[in-house]
Design goal:
This protein has one helix spanning 2-58. By secondary structure, it is mostly helical. The protein is rod-shaped, with a radius of gyration of 26 Å.
Length: 59
């Protein structure tokens, strides 16, 4: 009986640890997505500023 309880505890522990690793992986992907959006936003803003500067020089 103790062996069965021990096996169940190990299985439950494996499931919990696996779930935590999945959460860490998900958090990492969300952080990478946020960084990609932030970099793209800065790039577009810089391109817009450059365009405005060129237009300002033409006027």
């Amino acid at each position: 009986m103790t062996d069965l309880a021990h096996e169940l505890s190990e299985t439950e522990l494996d499931q919990v640890c696996g779930g935590e690793l999945d959460m860490i992986s998900l958090q990492s992907m969300v952080a990478q997505r946020h960084l990609a959006i932030q970099l793209t936003t800065h790039l577009i803003r810089a391109m817009n500023d450059t365009t405005r500067s060129i237009i300002g020089n033409i006027k």
